[in-house]
Amino acid sequence: MVKVFYGNDRIKAKTEIEKLLGKDYEIIEGAELTEQDLPSVFFGTSLFASTRNILIRDLSTNKAIFNRLPDYLNTPHNVIIFELSLDKRSAAYKELNKKVDFVEFKLPEIANFNVAFDVFRTAKTDGKKAVAMLDKIKTNEDPMMFFGLLASQAIKDYAKKQGTKEKRVLKELSKLDILLKTTSSQPWLLIESFLLQVSLLR
User: Fold this and answer.
1) Three-state SS for 60?
2) Tens-place pLDDT, residues 79-137
3) Helix residue spans in the chain (DSSP H)
4) Under 8 Å between Cβ of 100 and 81
5) Which residues are registered as beta bridge partners of 5?
6) Whole-angstrom Cα distance, residue 30 to residue 33?
7) pTM
8) 101-104 and 26-29 as β-strands: parallel, antiparallel, unpaired?
9) CA 32, 64, 74 angle in degrees (round to 5)?
10) SS3 of residue 185 by DSSP
């Protein structure tokens, strides 16, 4: 089974992922995969089970590998690809859409959509200023929705320029994602900490 989930409602997507894969599944970062990894990911076996449950995140940011996905649809494993956004104009999407299920999980539009992107762009050069901008809007926003917008913009940046900084930003966002889901810290404090780090990444 291969399914593609996409969209910025990460909570609903996670709920559906757990329905299909259970709570004990492998997580693979798609941006880091190489062509040599694909056979072991899609056809490799486990010592503990003949069928593996696998979640691959942000594979479409790795265009060369995403384009190879149609060659691995006959995997014996349960695989879900999760993307925050998809280029529906791409040849890979058009081919895959004929063969696998695509499911969208979309949050309602937030009032300060463009402001959220401005905060992220500002953070790349001035973290303190970005945090000050966030202070003006965060009382009316949901932190997980705001995080989804940050991640969406970071993925777009990486798709345009696959540089070292863009890749490091995605890795830090992945760490932030885990912290938001697993710690009891205030989510806005975690997001502010990320914004302060962005300008320092090289």
Assistant:
1) helix
2) 999 998 888 888 888 889 999 999 999 876 655 567 778 898 899 889 899 999 988 88
3) 10-21, 38-43, 63-66, 91-97, 113-123, 127-137, 143-160, 164-182, 187-198
4) no
5) 82, 103
6) 5
7) 0.58
8) unpaired
9) 90
10) coil
